[in-house]
Amino acid sequence: MNVKNFRIDTLYGILIVILLLPFMNSNINFRHVMVIFLIFAGLGEAWNIITGFAGQTSFGHAAFFGIGAYTSTILFYKFGISPWIGMLAGAVLATVISVIVSYPCFRLKGHYFAIATLAVAEIIKQLFISWDYVEGATGISIPIVEESVTSMQFHSSKIPYFLIAYVLFLITTMTARYIENNKMGFYLKAIRESHEAAEALGIDTTRYKLYAMMVSAALTATFGTLYAQYILYIDPFMVFTLEVSMKIVLLSVLGGLGNIYGPIIGAAILIPLSEYTRVYLGGTGKGIDLMIFGALIIFVACFEPNGILGLLKKKRSRRRGDVYARADA
Amino acid sequence: MFMQEPMLEVQNVTMKFGSLIANEDVSFSVHKGEIVSLIGPNGAGKTTLFNCITGFYRPYAGRIYFQGRDITGRPPHEITAMGLTRTFQIVKPLKEMTVKENVLTGAFLRASSRKEAEKIAEEVLEMTSLSGKKDMPAGSLTIADKKRLEIARALATGPKMVMLDEAMAGLNQTEIKEAMELCLNLKNRGITLLIVEHIMEAIMPISDRVVVLNAGKKIADASPEEVTSNEEVIKAYLGERYHAKSKKSEHGV
Asked: Which InterPro entries does this UniProt record tie to the protein (chain B) (predicted)?
């Protein structure tokens, strides 16, 4: 009971600190980093549902991110429809596509599934590059309109973007948390641990994997819409790229897979690293963040495959062990 | 004459892997409340038959009925949902989850809320004497407890019939005694059991009926006493080993 309360308090504490940070520091770069941090922490949480909980490694989440970005952008650019409706439409479309793509892919186990997701995302990227209706490789500059909540465009301050990112992040984290603590979470983890045992327990493994993928895809797409509205320009190389998929994977793995704190910790390290190197080093610094991050991942993989969270847990139990050892002596 | 419909009915099941015939025209039935044992030497096709019944394999020929419904080739999760579940010879604990979480996962099948699932899980943990270890990671249990957890998890799904695949292999004498008691306890609760086992001393006393497989074929289907004196069974499998052992114990060795 105590342990549980402690955990809930920790999460709420983290959420409150994140919410207050940009109001305590008005530096524009800092606020920008906070927005990107929330977007990627949220993407990590969404990805964690299918990969961390259900154990189905997806290297193709950029596909859903891009679909979210493109759906709202096209609807606004061509038809003047509010990005909020675009966001919902993007989530629905990503869900539908996730079902079409995953259903056949779920027949593949382990590495083959991961490779299939990678391939599908690349195919979708190529489609968008050569698709004239969506301006192909040129990309789309979202027409600048007067700032308002309806248009999801804000030019004078980054705070509204931050708040929208915060709400999306909150919804995603709470969804992940709800899943984790209820039937679906137990079922997904059972599938991760053993397909056969899960089936013998009456779990329709295909159906639950599909559910996890649908939820994950829908949430991922909403961040795509926000990202497009924030940058106000998209092209296939930006949103459908492997780099987006990999960032999501890397930060979640670094933080700790299958745990809702993992992506938050991972994003808190990777995003400031990549955004600040970009701000201070400009074009020359491109890729430095990923080099540092790569080194971190190798380090984590060698010494603590459960990520930073695993490291913290181990340290805590060791300290407790010390106390007992001393008591024995 | 009207007879009570069997709980499980296996009709002429044949299973092939390429040219290898693992089960050949096997038929038997299990009635409600019975403990039936399925025995046979290594490679007799017991686990294959288990996999056919529980939907992990689709039999090459033949049909399987559970409570009168044809379940041949149905996916395992549907069969479990109908009330027929199994344990695995090679235990499959959900390692990263605690003992209680393992059982809870099974309990969700019949529970409509987390609270209800918790209640079922507590009961099952109590029944299988795992309550004291409920917060341990399942991966860190001893083999005896892992086997017990297999049974606990299966029970949590609220089955009418459980199939145990060598649930006693690798256990010591005391643990085997406990497992036997658990089987009888389940029988008293109205759960039908089909047991694959090698340890004759353990299953002969608790079984109502014994089905013997040899080289994929059924060679006997009778009471434990009859089976142990059946010429063909002795020749095929039980033979000297069981007899030698029981003679030894008569002499108090």
From this structure: AAA+_ATPase (IPR003593), ABC_AA/LPS_Transport (IPR051120), ABC_transporter-like_ATP-bd (IPR003439), BCA_ABC_TP_C (IPR032823), P-loop_NTPase (IPR027417)
